[in-house]
Design goal:
206 residues, Rossmann fold, 6 helices, alpha/beta, single chain
Length: 206
C-alpha cells in the first residue's frame, strides 16, 4: 500500500498514456500480488493518518512518502531576510523541529498497525533558478535528517529518493516525478518489498 503524496500519486503529471507509479509497481510485483494507492496529491505528513482509514485487511507492506509538501509549505523561509546567519539557522531549526514532531507522530500511527513499513526521503527539486535550487536542497537536509534518523531508530527500510531520481528526465516538472522517475521509484519499492523487510534492520534502497 502506497501512502503519502504525489511522489506516488503522480498520474496527473505524467504524459498522456504513460504509467503512474502505482501502475509501474503493479507491473513489477510477482503474479498474484496487488498494489493499492492511498497516497493523495498535495497531502502533507499529517494527512497520512486519514489515508490509513482505507487500509485493506489484506495489506502486507506499507510504503510512505511524505514530507515534500511540508517542505513546500515552508518554502517562503528561503526568500525571507535575516539579520544574521544565526537567525537564519535558528529559523530553519524551528521548522525542522515542527516537522519532526509531526513526522514522528504520523509514523507512530503507521507503525501501530504492525505491518512491515518502509519510508522515503524527500527528493531534491529541479528548480531552474540556480539560487533557489541550491537553497532548497540545503533546507531539505533538515527534513531528510529527521526521516533518515526515524528509519534507523525504528529499523525501517529507507528508499532514498535523492539517489533514485537524479536526472532531468526523472521529473515532470520541478517537483513531480515523470513516468521515467516513477519507473525508478517503482523498481526501488518492489526491491524493498522483496528483500528489505527481514531482520528489523534499516537497509537503504537506491
Amino acid at each position: 500500500m502506497l501512502l503519502g503524496d504525489s511522489i506516488f500519486d503522480n498520474a496527473a503529471y505524467v504524459a498522456a498514456g504513460a504509467p503512474d507509479v502505482v501502475r509501474q509497481v503493479r507491473q513489477r510485483l510477482p503474479y498474484g500480488s496487488e498494489a493499492t494507492l492511498a497516497a493523495i496529491d498535495g497531502s502533507k505528513t499529517r494527512d497520512v493518518r486519514e489515508q490509513l482509514r482505507y487500509l485493506p485487511a489484506e495489506a502486507t507492506h506499507l510504503i510512505v512518502s511524505a514530507g515534500g509538501n511540508d517542505a513546500l509549505h515552508s518554502s517562503d523561509f528561503l526568500t525571507a531576510s535575516a539579520r544574521s546567519n544565526a537567525e537564519a539557522l535558528l529559523g530553519l531549526a524551528d521548522i525542522g523541529d515542527e516537522f519532526e514532531r509531526g513526522y514522528l507522530a504520523m509514523l507512530a500511527e503507521v507503525l501501530k498497525w504492525g505491518i512491515p513499513t518502509a519510508i522515503c526521503t524527500v527528493y531534491y527539486p529541479r528548480f531552474p533558478e540556480a539560487v533557489l535550487q541550491r537553497t532548497a536542497v540545503t533546507a531539505l537536509t533538515v527534513f531528510n535528517d529527521c526521516i533518515v534518523r526515524a528509519a534507523f531508530a525504528h529499523g525501517l527500510p529507507l528508499l532514498d529518493l535523492r539517489l533514485i531520481c537524479t536526472e532531468e528526465g526523472d521529473y515532470a516538472n520541478p517537483i513531480e516525478p515523470s513516468a521515467r522517475g516513477g519507473e525508478k521509484i517503482a523498481r526501488a519499492i518492489v526491491e524493498a518489498v522483496e528483500h528489505g523487510f527481514s531482520g528489523g534492520k534499516t537497509e537503504v534502497f537506491i
